[in-house]
Amino acid sequence: MSGTDDIVSALQNGFGAGFLKLQNTKDEFPTCWISGDCIIEVLSFLKNTVDRPFKMLHDLSAIDEQARNYRGGQPDSRFTIVYTLLSFERNSFIRLKVPLISEKPSVKTATNIWSSANWYEREVYDMFGVHFDGHPYLKRILMPESWKGHPLQKCHPARATEMGPFQLPEDKQEEEQALLQFKPEEWGLDQVSGDDELMFLNLGPQHPGTHGVLRLVLQLDGEHIVNVVPDIGFHHRGAEKMAERQSWHTYIPYTDRVEYLGGVMNNFPYVMAVEKLAGIEVPPRAQVIRIMMSELFRISSHLVWYGTFAQDLGMMTPVFLTFYDREKIFDIVSAVCGDRMHPNWFRIGGVTQDLPKGWDTMIRDFLDYFPKQLKLYDKMVMKNSLFKARTVGIGVYTTEEAIDWGITGPGLRATGFEWDFRKKQPYSGFENFEFDIPTGENGDCYDRAWVRVEEMRQSLRIIEQCLKNMPEGDYKSSHPVTTPPRKEKTMYDIETLINHFLNVTWGPVIPPNEAIFGVEATKGYNSYYLISDGSTTSYRTRIRTPSFPHLQFVPYISRGYTIPDLMAILGSVDYVLSDVDR
Amino acid sequence: MNPIWAHILTLVLVLLVMVTIAAGLIYVERRMLAVWQDRLGPNRVGPFGLLQVMADMIKIFFKEDWIPKFADKRVFVLAPMIVMISILMTFAVIPFTPLISVVNLNIGLLFFLAMSSLGAYSIVLAGWASNNKYSLLGAIRGSAQMLSYEVFMGLSLMGVVVMAGSFNLHDIVMAQNKVWYFIPQIVGFVVFFIAGIAETHRLPFDIPEAESELVAGYHSEYSGMKFGMFFVGEYLGITLISALIVTLYFGGWRGPHFLPPVIWFLIKMFVFILIFILMRASLPRPRYDQLMSYGWKILLPLSLLNLLITGACVLYFK
Asked: What residue spans define the domains of chain B?
């Protein structure tokens, strides 16, 4: 990444002793170790003072360093807080690490600098037990209030079998139930506003409008929303913890399920991050196959959104039609991959298999069929005046607000900001494709919908180019870490046989280092931050999903609207709960 | 035959036929929606799935009829009855043919308006008695919607009354011997139709029970046959509004002589029922305040204007 050297020297000069070390990483992000004493000053310097500033807090997470073998000269640390910032003007990231060595690790909160830091810091507190001084509402976010320990600490068991049998005696049950009692003050909600007594409405976790196990506590004045407090974590499966016990290879199927509508789109950033760590060059055919499959999944995911969004607004029919079209995509996906929603199709170094015979006719048929359907939906949904009345001018936000809250993907583009990582930081050969970035103007529900609909058209264009220009050649790299390795020479050559045996049984060993890789996923920017400690499993896997900040944004954009508007806003934000909770 | 027996026979017949049609509509609706949505719909029970209604009915009769502990029991039980009774009563004044009608009431139209106003109580009471916030919100929306749409509904009908010079539905049909009223009363017809959808709270005016917002609105807590009464009540409402549209604007039983009058009546009625279903298949749901402002700002002036012009014309041509 160019254009960030000046930043490193500016930090070195400006903060002197606070700047501890510059670390080299495989992703070539400038990675600066900063002392906890001055991290807030550094962050606000990078956001506000510096030329071409880092406006977005892309990610905030932590690493438990206590079980590391290879630190490679990094400053001493028990828990490391990792801030990843993004500058749009520079088109580059910067990573800041704060080492915490005390028994009761704590660091100052960044919530005053970025609104989006709120949930991220709560997550770090929940998962690692790191305290954030000055945080307005530091409570567990994913785990239940009664949970003992902090799951992502290395000392916390990863398997249920390590924890002893689960028991629920009566007193414990009552204790747990008492914790679930709704007390508005614990949620930071007032009972009255002026002279009016407010009503609290519990929406979810089982509710037709929340698209999954999301609980929202609404504070209502009549039907007007005074405040919304999301309660997440019902879909938490510990995907990041699982990564620490699966081999690099066997973790791929778990990524499929992180954002369960995206299918192979989730494999994409993960395998690319591993490839970056291992230094694998992916053959061009594999690259194009990956692009084609992931764009198919983009359409499929947007179709689910399209139908359910219309349904949230009371339209009954589109959801059946879009799901029918989605089946057509799944026909192609299952012909190519052998499975539908979670094909687990990408591999470290390529894809599982070559495309089957006749894949091109299937794709061509779909390319002929689908544009007509999109036109039909335009007529039915997007041009419907009632639909417009429900979505235009609802849930409006500006580009600045979106960036402050960490919004990426269609939600950001709907505000009129043309930012698509496929164009700005092309990966897997996206620079060779011609497509446009649709943008909205007003940042309301309608524009967000419009951007997604246009994106489907652009995805079709990309798929068409894949079809016309599919390169010949290997679908998998011949790099030794490619898993499972190519089979041709295995039975003739002892080296490759050993390699094959080890990679499949133990799993590949990735050299110690760290790398992040992100893609423009269906919902926004999805990145995997992997740290290898030189073993067959990842030391730390951080999954930055777009839905997490997007859902955090919902209360901010729904205050003052009514319950039906909230449904429109929730639908237009297009989150997936598995993507929020991981 | 003894006229009293003939009367009772008509009454029982009308009641049975209407309830059967309403129950049958469950099948019709599911099947038609399926056709419009590229699916098959119920097609397993009996030929073409026709016996699905029976299956549904058996299921709903034998379901546990549970009254929540926190509900106001008496009102909770009363609410679904009101909707059934008020709608079924209205069928009494509808002339299906010159001969088949339960009563020939000279204030038939007013009777219908009175009964449909009573119907609003069912929603309010159901929502209130359920003691559930979703039900309450649904009830608040429902009562506001029904009360305001009652106004335009009444006003829109006045055009017909002015033209026919009578509140008697029988007379209104007779008065349509030259031209069906939907031609001179097109505005009144449209307003009545819209108000009718609101009155039956069907999509796009189903905001009292908007499922993506309020789960099931005012009948969230209902189960078993009490829910069934709301359910069938909705279909009865559709049938009633369709029957009224036919009576008031489409010449009732009138039609070429190769078919008997009752068949003409039923055919016309089914056309409107299908339009109701088609609306459900195709439209999104407006927001509550949009619906209200649409009513008061557009439908009310429109129906007043319609009444004014109709009155002026009637006076002028007399």
From this structure: 68-317
C-alpha distances out from residue A396 to A78, A224, A468, A535, Å: 42, 16, 40, 47
pLDDT score recorded for residue A170: 92
The answer for A 378-407 residues in CB contact with B (under 8 A) is: 380-381, 384, 386-387, 389-390
Structure tokens at B130: 């359920």
pLDDT at A40: 86
Q: Which residues of chain A have pLDDT under 70?
A: 1-4, 193
Which of these CATH numbers, 3.40.50.20, 3.30.460.80, 1.10.3720.10, 3.30.110.30, describes A5-133? 3.30.460.80
Which regions of chain A carry the CATH code 3.30.460.80? 5-133
Is B203's pLDDT higher than 80? no
What does the alpha-carbon distance between residue A72 and residue A40 come to, in Å, rounded to a whole number?
26
ipTM: 0.82
CATH 1.10.645.10 domain extents, chain A: 247-545
Cβ-Cβ contacts under 8 Å, A320 against chain B: 37-39
CATH code of the domain occupying A247-545: 1.10.645.10
pLDDT tens digits for range A434-447: 888 888 888 888 99
Q: Which of B283, B291, B292 would you mutate first to test chain A, the one with the most A CBs within 10 A? A: B283
Closest CA to A52 of A88, A18, A102: A88
In A88-211, the DSSP E strands lie at: 92-100, 106-108, 131-133, 192-193, 196-197, 199-203
Nearest beta carbon to residue B288 from set A315, A317, A564: A564
Residue in A closest to B208 by C-alpha: A564
pLDDT digits (tens, 9 = 90+) for A15-26: 777 777 777 787
CA atoms of A467 and A461, how far apart (whole Å): 10
Local confidence band at B53 (pLDDT 50, 70, 90 cut-offs): confident
